[in-house]
TrEMBL record:
Keywords: Transferase
Superkingdom of the organism of origin: Bacteria
UniProt cross-references to InterPro entries, sorted A to Z: Glutathione-S-Trfase_C_sf (IPR036282), Glutathione_S-Trfase_N (IPR004045), GST_UstS-like_C (IPR054416), Thioredoxin-like_sf (IPR036249)
CDD domains documented for this protein: GST_C_etherase_LigE, GST_N_etherase_LigE
Recorded coiled-coil stretches: none
GO molecular function: transferase activity
Domain GST N-terminal residue range list: 8-84
Name this polypeptide is given: Beta-aryl ether-cleaving protein
Species for this entry: Sinorhizobium medicae
Taxonomic path: Bacteria, Pseudomonadati, Pseudomonadota, Alphaproteobacteria, Hyphomicrobiales
Length: 229
């Protein structure tokens, strides 16, 4: 059975950058499942699978369509229980929900401002127009003004990682001795920044950097298969 994962990309279709797509990619690899990546730009998403989604990732697994990275992880856990677990039980699911909330509020908002012009510049012209209009409506200001605020986010970004840094002093992954979906959530955010922006958010010698490097090497170096910007 061929699985297809629709992944958000810019002009270079070999560089999927969405943090949510990366969560799904590592989840599929964690389960040992083969899949093809179908690159798609922002404006093409509504036409996917006869209008099945407004967001990516979107996974087609045989006749089944699943969108939203967390729902994809839950689907994989339920459908393939004989393969390595993404959550290691109900407690792991609850932990992952918390980690996702923290990542989206503390990390995604900052990275979105830090990298906003890099994201825009990586897109095809039709997607650039969509991205500018939708983000300027969301923020109530120009992309350039948002990017100015992003410079302040860059200066204090390391402090946002302190909860992760504290945890990783006593274990190699958020999941313990091996990664779980919670690791892929945070990895996805930092991988997004790594792929789309030349700004470097992690410092050498930091335990978070060491953890991120370990994540890049997981599943045959899947994360490192796309080079840094």
């Amino acid at each position: 059975m061929t699985r297809k994962l629709y992944a958000l990309c810019g002009t270079d279709k070999s560089r999927p950058f969405s943090p949510h797509v990366w969560k799904a990619k590592l989840s599929l690899a964690h389960k040992g499942l083969t899949f093809d990546v179908a690159p798609v730009g922002f404006t093409a998403i509504p036409s996917l699978e006869e209008g099945a989604t407004k967001i990516v990732p979107l996974l087609r697994d045989g006749e089944k369509l699943v969108n939203d990275s967390f729902d994809i992880a839950l689907y994989l856990e339920e459908t393939y229980p004989d393969r390595p677990s993404l959550f290691a039980g109900e407690g792991g699911k609850a932990m992952a929900r918390f980690v996702e909330s923290w990542s989206q509020t503390a990390l995604h908002t900052a990275i979105g401002r830090i990298a906003i012009m890099d994201i825009h510049d990586s897109l095809d012209p039709v997607d650039q127009a969509y991205f500018r209009a939708s983000r300027e409506q969301r923020f109530g200001k120009s992309l350039e003004t948002v990017a100015g605020a992003g410079r302040e986010d860059l200066e204090i970004f390391s402090a946002k990682l302190e909860p992760l840094r504290h945890m990783l002093k006593s274990q190699p992954f958020l999941g313990g001795n091996s990664p779980l979906f919670a690791d892929y959530i945070v990895f996805g955010a930092l991988q997004w920044a790594r792929i789309v922006s030349p700004q470097r958010l992690l410092s050498e010698g930091d335990v978070v950097t060491d953890w991120f490097e370990r994540c890049l090497e997981l599943h045959g170096g899947l994360g490192r298969s796309v080079t840094a910007a």
